[in-house]
Design brief:
single chain, mainly alpha
Length: 155
């Protein structure tokens, strides 16, 4: 099985689970992933010959926008797992920046650094969704977002 099909299966399974069984936080994150994948699918591929030898401006921009969105989710969410996702996405953006600063970076290493974070991110989303379901069963409610007072640090 190629890595493309493996990733696509993991994306569909994890995002479907989050969309169907998750709270607002999990559903928003799954929607962000699916949107980013759809936009990324329209960008020029990095796996073509010479594709990972330069920084792809479209993927760099897409990853940076996804980082901002995931950070916003992490700041507003009552869950801890979105912080991991923002950190993993930040590592991918740093890989783009490193390639921009050092064009001699090997294409395989660059491609691995920007693609490799997607797998643990999807697994963390699935675990976060499962934990949400567990809290719902145990406590009966699981609010997704912090109140304005909580975000301001007043509570």
């Amino acid at each position: 099985m190629s890595t493309f099909w493996l990733f696509l299966a993991l994306l569909v399974i994890c995002c479907s689970y989050a969309l169907l069984r998750g709270g607002a936080c999990e559903r928003l994150t799954a929607a962000l992933y699916l949107l980013a994948y759809a936009v990324g699918f329209m960008l020029p591929r990095l796996d073509k010959p010479g594709g990972a030898t330069t920084v792809a401006a479209g993927f760099y921009s897409l990853d940076a926008i996804l980082l901002v969105a995931l950070t916003a989710v992490a700041v507003r969410a009552t869950r801890f797992w979105p912080l991991y996702l923002a950190g993993f996405q930040g590592a991918a953006v740093i890989a783009h920046t490193a390639k921009l600063l050092d064009p001699s970076m090997l294409g395989f290493g660059y491609a691995l650094q920007i693609r490799g974070w997607a797998y643990p991110m999807l697994i963390v989303l699935a675990i976060g969704t499962w934990r949400h379901r567990e809290r719902l069963c145990r406590v009966g409610s699981d609010p997704s977002w912090k109140s304005p007072q909580q975000r301001a640090g007043l509570i």
